[in-house]
């Protein structure tokens, strides 16, 4: 009954499938179900709140700085609360200043984070799409981790930026869009191209214009491959047609399944006051798919010749030129692949249902699981009215984040595994380098301690079921608390918190410098608890919780007596375990 | 259990119970608590899902008759030779092309003694009439138990647990999902513990000195409120306590039983361990992936497919042998179902593999199996194939329904498989037939296509 030892983990993201992923059109799929990889592909939790047993929590709305730093950012680092407080004379002024700062990430110097990215020696983040395609696909790297190195390094950089970047809202938005346009990264073609998907699609558009982002996603080879549109051709073309992407674009990317009218004939779908259909039916899915026929990319498999660039290609010879109707808008016969596709994206991006769907998801992410209708409606109206504005997303985010609903909502959401770990690292001012030497040296014992730690972190983290870029179905990780209350993620994250305060196996260095960060004058149990409550929660906590922490630290002694923190190893361990138990507590999970 | 002053409900882990559980440390639960003295059901159903679409035609191989000829011409390179199959003869059935003999792929040999002993029922040409060759849709539909509908809000096993009126009240771990994630068949189930191995459910990590104290503090913190978050945390803590109390210190299978040294083998041992611990395990799910053999799958003499099949069958045989002890043996209340989202194309492709197909086998391994070949064999001649694939002659829900009724004593088919009608037993397991509940009691509005049920939460 022995699982792999957590101190000797294999980073499972990088487990090479036993079966060589093939040259067949769908050969790449076999990676997903490769032996040794316990594919989560059957999992498709509906992303909707479920009724829960138990009462509503007795949470108190914390200071606005805490709300902002836990929902706009991935939790406060030391000094963040104070910096927020210094932004103005009252809450509204401070929040406005903070949001405006965060909405202009280029204005925020990010030297520390950039230095950490450099120090981690990632090799692939700067490669162009074609370089990625050539180096990591065409070159047929022997090691699986070299093939998917762009995905692995993007994932490591994502952790680094979430923890250390000062552009926290930007990172949150990138995270949001990756999840909205979710694809599975650790895959035969998607893996090599992932640095492009992250940089040129998500990061380039995270606070920009949705229509532009939508087209970037639609033409990106990673998405073309993941949802099969690279094989979507006019009937009689290569004999294939594929509605997979079109269906998900309607259901998950734009209008949302809530306005699916299924097999209702097009003529019977109800319309709004402007004559625009309220939703989509199967006819619309089919015509959207037709509009996107010929949107593919330069890849070797389907052309029976070496595809050398990996670049998007619009194949008019494989495009369906018949007339289409999309959501009531005629798209005349004879169009080109690019023209018809762009016309279709225009229709999708300006449809009011798209505005509502995106606005609701943004409100659910940044406000709470049950965002009030008023803020969703106003954000949706703004989204749709601004559909051609270059800073559309920025304006909508400003509207949401400065709303009264944002300021007054707390405790509807809990942190998901990624947010738990990142906020733990931020609160404790951790020095964590997310690092892999690729290809992996054969002997684990020769790995750099930081690499050992990174792989151990992955090992522990994946049991929480939120592997970054590792969600198989196209709907993305759920963003409602109901999905994250199961025992498995809870226990997995408790284990991870305890691991964090422990020593690096190889070097003996404590991962978190808990002792060194405790100021000289802080030596009684009461003082120690109050100091670390300030760091971990950045607010006052329920009295009963504080008493638990004090009891833990005082160990039966008078909590006003100095503890031998500087000399006694047991006391030092006690403090480390105290910090861990704070990170494991229910109070730490609210956001 | 009588020493546990609080009531343990079917939810399993209720706040406050764990103190009593901890007090029992060193002793075992009185297994009578779960042994259904009141006649309630104490069967364990294990559902093993083979992800990727297993090539059932090369597991239960036509070895004689006209269909052998069709098989050979469909699969000139992939065929399993008659000589390899004959030692594992399964008997023959009469189909549209006359008598067809079948035998097991040699890598499935570990299951052959169980077949001879009448413990293995092989159902041929099972699947869904909904004709979808997408992995995701097919898996979703099967695990949700609603072919053609992907957005059902709970899995069929969840609905079984919700509707079973015969589960003892004091069970600790009614439902287990072994492996990385909770599968869709258990979607919406609060009582399911999702666990890779008991090792994953230990808090023995981090600085060693204060681990016990940390546990106490953690429990106090999660007991300080009754909110949904606190309750969920307590449930996790209770699960940790139970698993540590019963399942720590490793697991030693029955002497002579050897599981595959793989994740799959470990996952099966987790199930065996929990069955033997008698903590009330009623439903367990486990996966084995890697069946999407579009290329180079290998033929009967070896290769990739053969290795994977050997892992599967070696594991299944080990699980059965391991649990075939006790008085009465655990296998007398064990039913294992092996299913996959679809079979593979009847003809091989140009890459020495085969593409997504349709009908497939299902295996039912049980101390109460009615062993042998079951189901109607549709034949392999051109006109008998469904777009080049083995036809489906038995709805997968028919097999599962029979197990639900005859073994688990739950006839609420209209709740568990909404939309499924016309059930009659195929005769794969022994047990009493019960009147099928024809009253639809499960509907949350979404299944009916009522968009308004979603609009407030998703749109």
Q: What is Rg of chain B? A: 23 Å
Q: What would the principal axes of the Cα set say about the shape of chain B?
A: globular
Alpha-beta content class of chain A: mainly alpha
Report the end-to-end length of chain A measured between terminal Cα atoms. Answer: 38 Å
Number of helices of chain B: 13
Provide the helix percentage of chain B: 25-40%
- Name the structural class of chain B: alpha/beta
Distance between the termini of chain B: 47 Å
- The overall pLDDT average of chain B reads 81
Strand order of the largest sheet of chain A: 1-2
Low-confidence stretches of chain B: 1-37, 438-459
Shape of chain A: globular
Number of helices of chain A: 28
In percent terms, what proportion of residues of chain A is strand?
under 5%
Q: What Rg of chain A, in angstroms, do the CA atoms define? A: 25 Å
Largest interface (CB within 8 Å) is between:
A-B, 92 and 95 residues
Fraction of residues in H or I helices of chain A: 40-55%
Q: Which spans of chain A have pLDDT < 50 for at least 5 consecutive residues?
A: 1-51
| Strand tally of chain A | 4
Describe what this molecule looks like in 3D.
The complex is a heterodimer of chains A (591) and B (459). Chain A is built from 28 helices and four strands. With 591 residues, chain A is an all-alpha fold. Chain A has a two-stranded antiparallel ribbon with strand order 1-2. Chain A has a two-stranded antiparallel sheet with strand order 3-4. Mean pLDDT of chain A is 88; it is low at 1-51. In chain B, strands 1, 5, 6, 7, 8, 9, 10, 11 and 12 form a nine-stranded mixed beta sheet that branches. The chains are: A mainly alpha (591), B alpha/beta (459). The interface between A and B is large, with 92 and 95 residues.
């Amino acid at each position: 009954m022995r699982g792999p030892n957590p101190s000797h983990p294999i980073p499972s993201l990088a487990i090479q499938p036993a079966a060589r992923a093939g040259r067949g059109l769908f050969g790449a799929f076999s990676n997903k179900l490769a032996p040794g990889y316990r594919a989560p592909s059957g999992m498709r939790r509906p992303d909707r709140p479920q009724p829960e047993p138990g009462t509503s929590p007795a949470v108190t709305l914390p200071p606005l700085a805490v709300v902002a730093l836990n929902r706009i950012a991935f939790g406060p680092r030391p000094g963040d609360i104070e910096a927020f407080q210094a932004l103005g004379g009252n809450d509204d002024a401070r929040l406005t200043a903070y949001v405006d700062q965060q909405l202009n990430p280029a204005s925020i110097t990010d030297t520390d984070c950039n230095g950490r990215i450099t120090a981690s020696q990632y090799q692939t983040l700067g490669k162009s799409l074609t370089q990625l395609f050539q180096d990591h696909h065409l070159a047929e790297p022997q090691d699986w981790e070299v093939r998917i190195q762009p995905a692995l390094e993007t994932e490591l950089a994502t952790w680094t930026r979430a923890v250390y970047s000062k552009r926290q809202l930007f990172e949150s938005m990138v995270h949001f869009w990756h999840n909205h346009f979710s694809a599975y990264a650790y895959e035969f073609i998607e893996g090599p191209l992932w640095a492009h998907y992250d940089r040129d699609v998500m990061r380039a558009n995270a606070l920009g214009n949705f229509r532009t982002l939508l087209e970037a996603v639609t033409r990106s080879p990673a998405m073309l491959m993941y949802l099969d549109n690279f094989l979507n051709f006019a009937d009689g073309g290569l004999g294939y047609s594929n509605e997979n992407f079109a269906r998900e674009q309607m259901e998950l990317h734009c209008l949302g399944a809530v306005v699916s009218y299924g097999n209702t004939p097009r003529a019977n779908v109800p319309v709004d006051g402007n004559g625009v259909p309220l939703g989509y039916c199967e006819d619309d899915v089919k015509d959207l798919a037709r509009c996107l026929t010929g949107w593919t990319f330069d890849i070797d498999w389907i052309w029976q010749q070496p595809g050398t660039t990996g670049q998007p290609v619009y194949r008019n010879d494989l495009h369906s030129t018949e007339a289409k109707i999309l959501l009531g808008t005629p798209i005349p016969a004879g169009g080109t692949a690019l023209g018809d596709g762009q016309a279709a994206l225009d229709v999708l991006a300006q449809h009011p249902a798209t505005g509502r769907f995106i606005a609701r998801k943004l409100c659910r992410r940044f406000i709470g699981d049950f965002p009030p209708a008023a803020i969703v409606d106003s954000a949706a109206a703004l989204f749709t009215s601004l559909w051609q504005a270059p800073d559309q997303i920025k304006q909508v985010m400003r509207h949401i984040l400065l709303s009264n609903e944002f300021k007054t909502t707390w405790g509807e959401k809990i942190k998901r595994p990624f947010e738990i770990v990142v906020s733990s690292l931020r609160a404790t001012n951790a020095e964590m380098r997310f690092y892999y030497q690729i290809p992996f040296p054969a002997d684990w014992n020769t790995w750099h301690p930081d690499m050992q730690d990174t792989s151990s972190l992955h090992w522990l983290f994946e049991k929480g079921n939120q592997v970054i870029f590792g969600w198989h179905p196209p709907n993305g990780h759920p963003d409602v608390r109901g999905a994250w209350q199961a025992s498995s993620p809870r226990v997995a994250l408790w284990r991870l918190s305890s691991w964090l305060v422990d020593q690096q196996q190889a070097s003996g260095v404590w991962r978190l410098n808990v002792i060194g960060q405790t100021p000289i004058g802080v030596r009684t149990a009461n003082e120690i608890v109050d100091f670390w409550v300030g760091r971990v929660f950045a607010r006052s906590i329920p009295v009963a919780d504080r008493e638990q922490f004090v009891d833990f630290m005082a160990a039966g002694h008078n909590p006003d007596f100095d503890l031998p923190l500087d000399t006694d190893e047991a006391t030092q361990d006690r403090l480390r375990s105290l910090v861990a138990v704070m990170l494991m507590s229910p109070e730490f999970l609210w956001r | 259990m009588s020493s546990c002053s609080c009531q343990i409900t079917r939810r399993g882990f209720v706040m406050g119970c764990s103190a009593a559980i901890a007090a029992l440390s060193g002793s075992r639960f009185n297994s009578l608590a779960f042994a259904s003295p009141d006649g309630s059901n104490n069967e364990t159903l294990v559902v093993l899902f083979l992800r990727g679409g297993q090539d059932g035609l090369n597991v239960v191989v036509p070895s004689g008759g006209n269909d052998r000829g069709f098989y050979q011409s469909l699969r000139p390179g992939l065929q399993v030779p008659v000589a390899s199959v004959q030692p594992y003869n399964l008997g023959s059935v009469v189909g549209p092309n006359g008598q067809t003999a079948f035998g097991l792929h040699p890598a499935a040999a570990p299951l052959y003694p169980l077949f001879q002993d009448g413990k293995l029922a092989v159902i041929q040409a099972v699947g869904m009439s909904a004709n979808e060759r997408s992995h995701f849709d097919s898996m979703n539909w099967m695990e949700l138990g609603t072919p053609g509908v992907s957005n059902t809000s709970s899995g069929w096993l969840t609905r079984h647990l919700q509707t079973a009126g015969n589960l003892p009240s004091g069970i600790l771990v009614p439902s287990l999902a072994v492996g990385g994630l909770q599968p869709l068949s258990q979607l919406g189930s609060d009582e399911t513990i999702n666990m890779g191995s008991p090792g994953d459910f230990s808090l023995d990590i981090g600085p060693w000195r204060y681990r016990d104290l940390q546990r106490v503090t953690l429990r106090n913190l999660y007991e300080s409120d009754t909110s949904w978050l606190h309750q969920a945390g307590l449930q996790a803590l209770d699960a940790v306590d139970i698993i540590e109390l019963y399942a720590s210190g490793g697991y030693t299978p029955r002497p002579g039983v050897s599981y595959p040294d793989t994740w799959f083998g470990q996952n099966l041992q987790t199930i065996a361990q929990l069955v033997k611990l008698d903590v009330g395990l009623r439903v367990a799910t486990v996966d084995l992936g890697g069946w999407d053999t579009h290329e180079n799958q290998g033929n009967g003499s070896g290769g990739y497919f053969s290795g994977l099949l050997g892992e599967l069958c070696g594991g299944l045989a080990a699980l059965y042998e391991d649990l075939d002890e006790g008085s009465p043996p655990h296998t007398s209340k064990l039913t294992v179902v092996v299913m996959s989202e679809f079979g593979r194309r009847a003809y091989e492709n140009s890459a020495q593999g085969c593409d997504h197909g349709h009908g497939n086998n299902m295996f039912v391994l049980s101390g109460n199996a009615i062993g042998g070949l079951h189901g109607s064999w549709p034949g392999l001649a051109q006109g008998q194939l469904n777009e080049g694939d083995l036809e489906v002659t038995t709805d997968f829900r028919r097999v599962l329904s029979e197990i639900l009724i005859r073994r688990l004593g739950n006839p609420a088919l209209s709740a568990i498989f909404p939309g499924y009608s016309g059930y009659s037993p195929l005769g794969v397991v022994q047990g009493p037939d019960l009147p099928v509940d024809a009253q639809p009691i499960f509907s949350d509005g979404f299944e009916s296509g009522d968009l308004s049920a979603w609009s407030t939460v998703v749109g």
